[in-house]
C-alpha cells in the first residue's frame, strides 16, 4: 500500500467541523456575490499546498441554501487570469438556457470582469451542485452545493430531520494544478489514476474541541454529491444504515442501505438515525471498481462520546458491478409523494406516453490525429468561438452543425464537430446510452430531469423495452452506464433551449464526449422561452450584435 494511502486511511476528520465550516446564506429574493479567485490550500497531510479555485475565499465554495422558485441574482466576479464560467448542475433553468453557464450557451467571463446570473430553481427541490464548466478548472475546485428546500406548506415524505448536512465527495489529483492536468489532456493523454478522495475539501484533517454534536436517538439528513472527475465513490457510515429519501429532486421509496454507490455528477439524500452505542464512527467515501482503492474518511461524533473511532474502516461492500446495477434498480419513485409541487409525482404517467423518437448514443475513445479523444456516435465535440445559443438567436451561420451527429451509431471513422441534435419542443424521447467500453460512464443532461427506465448488460435492442420500469422509475439529471452495458431514459422535452448533454466523467467531457440538444419550436413566444438577458456577454461572431 502506498504510504500516502495508509496515512489517508488513518486520517481523522470530524465531520461537523467541516460542515459548520461551510457558510450558507440567502433566504429569499437573493443577491449573491461570488468572488472567484485562486490560492493554495493544504489538502493532504496538511503539508503540501495545492492550487485551488476559491469562491469568496472558500473551498468548497459557499453552500447556496434556497427555496423552490427563489429568484437568484448571482454576480460572479472573475479574479482568475483566465476566462471562467460556473454551471448549475441539476438546476433546470426553465425557459432559460441563457443562464446555464456552459460554453454552448454563455460567453466565458473574461478575467477581471463579471457577469450577473439570474435564475430560479423553478418547481425544484433537493440537492444540487455548481462547478466550473470552462477549461479543466473543475479539477482545481470551484465547486459547491445548491440545496433547494421546499416552500412552506409543501410537505415532504419524512419527518423534519434533527440536522441537515452536506457532503461533497470526489476524487482529487495532486499531480499538478489545473493547467498541468489540462496541458496533459491537450497533448493527447488521458487522466491517470487520482491521488486521493476529498470530503468537503479534506482528506486528512484533525479537528479538536468544540464541534456541535449529534445526539443519540436523533435522525439527521446527509446530502451526498459526487463532485469528482472520474471515479464512482461508495459512501457508508460505520455501524449505521441509511434510509434513502431523495435523489436529484425525486422522492423515492424509502429503502435502507448499508452503502450507496454515488457516480460522478450524482447526488443522493439519506436519513441516518443515531441508534448505536454513543461513540465515534467512521464516515467513508472510497473509489469503486478500481484495482487500487482511495479512501477519505470523516468521523460521526455522538454527544457524550468519549470513545474515538476505532477498528478498521468499514469495508467496501462485496457487491461489484452487477450488484451496483441491482442497487440502481431499487431506486424508485414514491408515486404518492409530491416533489416540489403539491401534486403526487406519480400523477404524471410517463409510462403511458408514446415516444416520438429514439436516440442511441454510443461512447468511444478514439485516437484522432494521434491524440486521445472521446466521442459519441463517432463525433468528438469541439467548442465553437461563439456560444451556440447566441448563434441561434442572432442567426449566425457556420457555428454549429445539426447534421454531423447521427441519432444511431454508424461505425464510421471518428470525426470532430460542434455537434447539435435538433429536436422539437414537446417531443417525448427515448435515449439509450450504449457503453461498449470497459469503463464506467455517467451521462448528464442540462435543462431536464429524465426517467431512468432500464439498465442492462451487453447490447441494447428494441426487445429490451419489455424490461423497462414504466411505472415507478425515478427522475434524475445524471445516470450511470455500467461497462459493456446500456441504460435507457425517457425525456419529456418541455424546456425550449440549447442544452448540453455530456459525459460527467470530466476528461471525457473535456475531450469531446458531449453535444447539444436543441429543443426548438417555430413559434417564438415568451411562454416557451425568455428573451436574451440584457446583460448577456457577447463574444466570437456575436460581438457587436445588439440585444
Ligand atoms: C468580493 O470582492 C469585492 C471587491 O472586488 C468586495 O467588495 C466584496 O466584499 C467581495 N465579496 C465577497 C462576498 O467576498
Ligand atoms: C457586473 O456587476 C454589476 C454590479 O456591480 C452589474 O450591474 C452588471 O450588470 C454586471 N455585469 C454583467 C455583464 O452582468
Ligand atoms: C410515500 O409517500 C407517502 C406520502 O408522503 C408516505 O406516506 C409513504 O410512507 C411513502 N412510502 C414509501 C414506501 O416511502
UniProtKB/TrEMBL annotation:
Protein name, per record: Uncharacterized protein
Where the record annotates domain Plastocyanin-like, the positions are 51-151, 164-304, 385-522
* Signal peptide location: 1-28
Keyword Protein transport (UniProt): no
Family, according to the entry, reads as follows: Belongs to the multicopper oxidase family.
- Which keywords does the record carry? Glycoprotein, Signal
Q: Name one Pfam family in it.
A: Cu-oxidase
**GO terms of molecular function:** copper ion binding; oxidoreductase activity
Q: Which InterPro entries match?
A: Cu-oxidase-like_N (IPR011707), Cu-oxidase_2nd (IPR001117), Cu-oxidase_C (IPR011706), Cu-oxidase_fam (IPR045087), Cupredoxin (IPR008972)
Amino acid at each position: 500500500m502506498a504510504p500516502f494511502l495508509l496515512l489517508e486511511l488513518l486520517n481523522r476528520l470530524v465531520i461537523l467541523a467541516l460542515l459548520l465550516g461551510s457558510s450558507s446564506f440567502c433566504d429569499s429574493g437573493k443577491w449573491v456575490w461570488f468572488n472567484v479567485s485562486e490560492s493554495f490550500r493544504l489538502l493532504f497531510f496538511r503539508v503540501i499546498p495545492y492550487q485551488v479555485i476559491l469562491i469568496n475565499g472558500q473551498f468548497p465554495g459557499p453552500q447556496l441554501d434556497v427555496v423552490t422558485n427563489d429568484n437568484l441574482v448571482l454576480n460572479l466576479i472573475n479574479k482568475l487570469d483566465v476566462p471562467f464560467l460556473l454551471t448549475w448542475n441539476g438546476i433546470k433553468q426553465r425557459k432559460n438556457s441563457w443562464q446555464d453557464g456552459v460554453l454552448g450557451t454563455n460567453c466565458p467571463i473574461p478575467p477581471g470582469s463579471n457577469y450577473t446570473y439570474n435564475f430560479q430553481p423553478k418547481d425544484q427541490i433537493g440537492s444540487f451542485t455548481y462547478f466550473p464548466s470552462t477549461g479543466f478548472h473543475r479539477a482545481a475546485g470551484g465547486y459547491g452545493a445548491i440545496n433547494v428546500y421546499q416552500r412552506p406548506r409543501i410537505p415532504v415524505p419524512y419527518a423534519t430531520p434533527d440536522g441537515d448536512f452536506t457532503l461533497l465527495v470526489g476524487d482529487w489529483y495532486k499531480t499538478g494544478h489545473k493547467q498541468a492536468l489540462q496541458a496533459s489532456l491537450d497533448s493527447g493523454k488521458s487522466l491517470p489514476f487520482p491521488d486521493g478522495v476529498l470530503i468537503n475539501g479534506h482528506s486528512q484533517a484533525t479537528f479538536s474541541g468544540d464541534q456541535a454534536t449529534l445526539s443519540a436517538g436523533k435522525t439527521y439528513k446527509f446530502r451526498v454529491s459526487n463532485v469528482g472527475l472520474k471515479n464512482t465513490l461508495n459512501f457508508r457510515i460505520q455501524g449505521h444504515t441509511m434510509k434513502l429519501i431523495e435523489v436529484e429532486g425525486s422522492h423515492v421509496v424509502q429503502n435502507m442501505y448499508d452503502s450507496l454507490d454515488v457516480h460522478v455528477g450524482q447526488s443522493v439524500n439519506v436519513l441516518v438515525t443515531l441508534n448505536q452505542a454513543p461513540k465515534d464512527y467512521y464516515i467513508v467515501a472510497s473509489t469503486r471498481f478500481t484495482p487500487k482503492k482511495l479512501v477519505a474518511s470523516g468521523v460521526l461524533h455522538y454527544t457524550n462520546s468519549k470513545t474515538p473511532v476505532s477498528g478498521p474502516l468499514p469495508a467496501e461492500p462485496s457487491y461489484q458491478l452487477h450488484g451496483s446495477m441491482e442497487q440502481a434498480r431499487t431506486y424508485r419513485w414514491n408515486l404518492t409523494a409530491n416533489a416540489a409541487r403539491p401534486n403526487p409525482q406519480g400523477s404524471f404517467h410517463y409510462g403511458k406516453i408514446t415516444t416520438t423518437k429514439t436516440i442511441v448514443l454510443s461512447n468511444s475513445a478514439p485516437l484522432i490525429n494521434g491524440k486521445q479523444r472521446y466521442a459519441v456516435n463517432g463525433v468528438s465535440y469541439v467548442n465553437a468561438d461563439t456560444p451556440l445559443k447566441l448563434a441561434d438567436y442572432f442567426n449566425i451561420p457556420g457555428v454549429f452543425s445539426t447534421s454531423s451527429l447521427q441519432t444511431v451509431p454508424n461505425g464510421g471513422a471518428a470525426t470532430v464537430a460542434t455537434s447539435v441534435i435538433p429536436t422539437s419542443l414537446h417531443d417525448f424521447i427515448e435515449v439509450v446510452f450504449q457503453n461498449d467500453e470497459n469503463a464506467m460512464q455517467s451521462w448528464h443532461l442540462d435543462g431536464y430531469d429524465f426517467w431512468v427506465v432500464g439498465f442492462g448488460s451487453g447490447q441494447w435492442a428494441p426487445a429490451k423495452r419489455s424490461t423497462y420500469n414504466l411505472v415507478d422509475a425515478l427522475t434524475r439529471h445524471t445516470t450511470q452506464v455500467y461497462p459493456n452495458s446500456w441504460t435507457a431514459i425517457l425525456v419529456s422535452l418541455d424546456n425550449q433551449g440549447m442544452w448540453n448533454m455530456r459525459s460527467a466523467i470530466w476528461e471525457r467531457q473535456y475531450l469531446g464526449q458531449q453535444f447539444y440538444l436543441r429543443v426548438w419550436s417555430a413559434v417564438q413566444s415568451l411562454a416557451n422561452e425568455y428573451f436574451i438577458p440584457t446583460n448577456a456577454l457577447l463574444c466570437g461572431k456575436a460581438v457587436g450584435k445588439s440585444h
